[in-house]
Write a structure and sequence with these properties.
The protein has a domain of 76 residues. A hairpin with a 2-residue loop joins strand 6 and strand 7. The protein is an alpha+beta fold. The strands form 6 sheets. Strands 5-4-16-17-18-15-19 form a 7-stranded mixed sheet. The protein is 36% helix and 20% strand. The chain binds flavin-adenine dinucleotide.
């Protein structure tokens, strides 16, 4: 039996992993986090993916308890600004498409939708909530599920809402502090010290890490959460890192934390990704401030130029705010689990922050680790199965992100021009060719679990301007009445939700 796990690194990955293991195995597993006081965490990573709600639920954490402590706010989706053309925007929501007569609303929209009004606004409720800056919860904390449609015996809106309709934004540093306290209270051992050396046996398996002041810390299983350094997985075990820079060239970011008077300006319940001449800028509204950052490729823009562009965009006149320049390692390890070491977080892989998947990868990694947890037999099949799932998830997101750049209509700078001719993964090439004729389905998107569903692929394709040449011919042979009624119902559900839900600021102020 594995009795002791040592987590090296105390960023989001380290503390999410330690807490999850404690929640899964309780006192039967000793969990130690060794975290340097000297080496800072990456200091970004503040927008999440809707599955993150499972993580907090697994820990037994109510959102009213942790959100106020972490500057938490709601994220209903991502607003893509200026990706198709300057001034144009669309939303990629956490909301699945409704289905009528066997066809998702995206197909129906191509057939009978009003083309000048945008696919997202006609097929989802979320864009209306975003534009009206609504909270997904009522002031009493209930999710708003709409009025029950008696004729159907159910509420279509209730069905939508019963899924995971939102994710969160949070302050990364405050979340790490919160999870540190939460973990320590539940028995995680916490050592604040630098790991100076990693001890291995004759087979190359890790036996202990040597710290500056706390001596050797031994364990059965070691989790590498040391960020882009990959102290255990790469520097010690020598695992090969596969770069994705040939298809995803953004390799740097500069971030600024911008205070904001939200009582006056309100809070957007979404992340914004604004296309820029050499990349894109994120705007993440937390309760109390905005997190912003310019993600770019240094082939097309220098760090000084990026910082100047970000300051002009997000914080004009605020030269007092200090910028955090970050070099990104884009790609993944060939294997994230090697011998008795599992890399989770940036040490495992990272595919740039465009769809906020860094924390999703952490959660997926730790969930899969619990599912594939080893014993003293160290069955190699178990590690191989784990590695395959991790690789599929990261590779799927890679493809999905390359699609964002390839399908975007924008071509007004060298950066965007090259995005149209740069090599792309073969699978994506086939998918894009298919998507020129018909919208993708479950069989034609990336075939392994990677967090994104068919609706996301089609939302991005249609939002970015990559439309099939014509609607599905089958629809011309089906009575359109029910689909037209559903489009009207979506509009009514959206108006009803907007009129009943409080503003995001109002709700968050009430829990803070
Ligand atoms: C520009 C950018 C934007 C991002 N935006 C998002 C986003 O919006 N959403 C999202 O989900 N993800 C995002 N991510 C990813 C996200 O930031 C990370 O997945 C997350 O913060 C986890 O980082 P980490 O814990 O793996 O590494 P880090 O935060 O780098 O932590 C590393 C830890 O290891 C410790 N350490 C290192 N060496 C030693 C040593 N020798 N001894 C002891 N301790 C050591 C450090 O002290 C630190 O505690 C973004 C990443 C980047 C680069």
């Amino acid at each position: 039996m594995i009795r002791s796990v040592v987590v090296v690194g105390g960023g989001t990955a380290g503390w999410m992993s330690a807490n999850y293991l404690k929640a899964a195995f309780g006192d039967r597993l000793r969990v130690t986090v060794v975290e340097s006081d000297r080496i800072p965490t990456i200091g970004v990573g503040e927008a999440t993916f809707s599955t993150v709600r499972h993580f907090f639920e697994y820990l037994g954490l109510d959102e009213r308890a942790w959100m106020p402590e972490c500057g938490g706010s709601f994220k209903l989706g991502i607003r893509f600004q200026d990706w198709a053309a300057p001034g144009h925007h669309f939303y990629h929501p956490f909301e699945r498409l409704r289905v009528v007569d066997g066809f998702p609303m995206a197909d129906w929209w191509l057939h009978i939708g009003e083309r000048d009004q945008g696919f997202d606004r006609q097929c989802f409720i979320t864009p209306a909530l975003c534009e009206a800056r609504r909270s997904p919860r009522m002031l009493d904390g209930q999710l708003f599920v709409g009025d029950v449609d008696q004729s159907l015996g159910r509420s279509t809106l209730a069905e939508q809402r019963a899924q995971f309709p939102y994710a969160y934004h949070f302050d990364a540093a405050r979340l790490a502090l919160f999870l540190t306290r939460f973990g320590v209270e539940r028995g995680v051992h916490h050592i604040r010290d630098d790991v100076l050396k990693v001890g291995q046996d004759e087979r190359g398996w890790i036996t202990h890490v040597t710290t500056g002041e706390h001596g050797d810390v031994a364990g059965d299983l070691f989790i590498d959460c040391t960020g882009f350094r990959g102290l255990l997985i790469n520097q010690t075990l020598g695992e090969t890192f596969q770069s994705f820079q040939d298809v995803l060239p953004n390799n740097r970011a500069v971030a600024l934390q911008v205070p904001r008077d939200q009582e006056r300006h309100g809070i957007d319940p979404y992340t914004t990704a604004t296309a820029m001449p050499a990349g894109w800028i994120w705007t993440i509204p937390l309760f109390g401030r905005n997190g912003t950052g310019y993600v770019y490729s240094d082939e097309f823009c220098s760090p000084d130029e990026a910082e100047a562009a970000l300051r002009g965009f997000a914080a004009p006149g605020r030269e007092d705010l200090s910028a955090n320049h970050i070099q990104m390692r884009i790609g993944r390890n060939e294997r994230s689990w090697v011998n008795n070491c599992v890399a989770i977080g940036l040490s495992s892989g990272f595919v740039e922050p465009l769809e906020s998947t860094g924390i999703f990868f952490i959660q997926h990694g730790i969930e899969q680790l619990v599912r594939h947890f080893p014993d003293r037999r160290w069955d190699p099949q178990r590690a191989a199965a784990y590695n395959e799932r991790i690789n599929h998830a990261i590779d799927g997101v890679k493809e999905f992100l390359v699609l964002h750049y390839r399908a975007a209509l924008r071509d007004d700078s060298q950066y965007w021009k090259e995005a149209k001719v740069r090599p792309i993964p073969d699978g994506l090439r086939e998918r894009l060719a298919m998507a020129s004729s018909f919208l993708l389905d479950e069989e034609t998107i990336y075939p392994h679990y990677h967090g994104f569903e068919t609706y996301s692929w089609n939302t991005m394709l249609l939002g970015l301007g990559h439309e099939p040449s014509h609607p599905r011919p089958a629809l011309a042979l089906i009575d359109r009445t029910r689909a037209a009624e559903e489009l009207a119902r979506i509009r009514a559900d959206a108006e009803n939700s907007v009129s009943r839900l409080p503003s995001c600021y109002e709700y968050l102020a009430s829990i803070n």
